Amino acid sequence: MVNSALPLTTIAVSSSIFVSPQKDIAFALNVPDDVSSSDLFFSLAFPTHSSWVAVGLGASTMDGNPLVLMAYPSKSGNNVTLSPRQCSGQNEPVYDSSIDVKTLPGTGLFNDTTFIFNGVCGNCRSWSRDGSIDVSSTAQQMIYATGPTGDTQSDDPRNSVEFHSSYGSFTMDLVRATGEGGVPEIPANENVTSVGAVRLSAETGQVDNKAITHAVFMILAFVGIWPFGILVLRIGHSPRWHAINQVVAFGFVVVGAILGFTISLYYNRSKKFNTPHQIIGILVFIFSIGQLVLGFLHHRAYKKTQQPTKMAPVHVWLGRLVILLGIVNGFTGFPLALSPIYDFALLGVVLVVLPIFLLALAAGKIFKKFMKNAKQTDFDHTNGYEMDPWGRRAEPGMHDTLISAPPQGARQFV
Predict the structure, then answer these.
(1) In this structure, what CATH number is given to the domain that contains residue 332?
(2) 183 & 235 share domain
(3) 245 and 319 belong to one structural domain
(4) How far from 213 is each of 216, 220, 253, 280, CA to CA, in Å?
(5) pTM above 0.85, yes or no
(6) What keywords would UniProt list here (predicted)?
(7) pLDDT 10s per residue in the chain (414 long)?
(8) Which residue segment(s) compose the domain that 172 sits in?
């Protein structure tokens, strides 16, 4: 929440102040009454646990083309980076270098608990063909958003950020905020409330559900369902259920790929589709289609000829490559999502599932070999002779007992 350590300005200026319900962002605005000025003075405060905060001027939604003033800790952790951005719908706003924002005294980290940015913008009253604010309005629409708890320290105003954890809209009385130009004051107390601003909406506990579903579906496919399909074939000896299993896994991959493509369009860091995660992901998706086609063609040919095909080894090794690349790509996905800590969770899942998978394969091989040897105990592979009938079980139709001695007159081979 906004901390009591916020510095006071030396002069009192007219302003309106908005404070979010969770007090994780406070925004104060001053409109100079000089008719020749196009400046806007503002102050933006947020607690150190927020990875970023932003206020959008001139609209009640991101679709309304607001001018976004985004702030996050500097690389040193002792200052604030202010990034003016423009919206293009429900996507991460893009940095706009043409917006003239200057940093003013009083900017920085205070009492190790609160960041504050004091600034003046020389062209924030109108920023595009259909983007502007009305300084004569007593209810100018605006929006706000805050990032999740995390580390977004950067000096780069183009830095890409995580999905917001809370957002909302409000109106601000700009007539009340009009007066002598200067940095507006945010009252230095924990009970600070909005003045000259009215909250319209507020949403909290937000997460990028599409990104979460993408990760879950892909991990299930490559770490769970696809490897299980190998066990179905190698241990269960069921081509039918192997095929069904692989089709289900491919369905998960298709859904995950569609979600991944959609998510990529949301964030500045992924819009160009040139990251290792995206490149490997596209290759894996293409290989997955090839794997499915090869499996179908091989099975159809085998049913006709009952003979192995040249496609079989390609299908086997391509499948192994797809699973390996899919798992490796999972470890590149979480850093792209700015959540590298989840790589440890994925590593834990792999380290649990992989030994179980290998043990199951080994146990299946041993069991298969045991059953094969058991079936061949009736045949002497050394000299090619069949064992005497009293040394094996009776054939169907005979007494189901072991004959303990040869019948009279039967010749024995030593």
Answers:
(1) 1.20.120.1770
(2) no
(3) yes
(4) 5, 10, 11, 19
(5) no
(6) Electron transport, Membrane, Transmembrane, Transmembrane helix, Transport
(7) 444 344 444 457 899 999 999 999 999 999 999 878 889 999 999 999 999 999 999 999 998 889 999 999 999 999 999 999 998 888 999 999 999 999 999 999 998 999 999 999 999 999 877 789 999 999 999 999 999 998 789 999 999 999 999 999 999 999 999 999 999 989 877 788 999 999 999 999 999 999 999 999 999 999 999 999 888 888 888 888 888 999 999 999 999 999 999 999 999 999 999 999 999 999 999 999 999 998 888 888 878 888 878 888 898 899 999 999 999 999 999 999 999 999 999 999 999 999 998 898 888 778 777 777 777 665 544 444 444 444 444 455 544 444 444 555 544 433
(8) 16-203
Residues 39, 205: Cα–Cα separation, whole Å: 35
The encoded tokens of residue 59 equal 């609209």
Asked if the structure places residue 412 within a domain, the reply is no
Based on the structure, what is the number of domains in the chain?
2
Rounded distance between C-alpha atoms, residue 207 and residue 386, angstroms:
71
Answer whether residue 324 is part of any domain.
Answer: yes
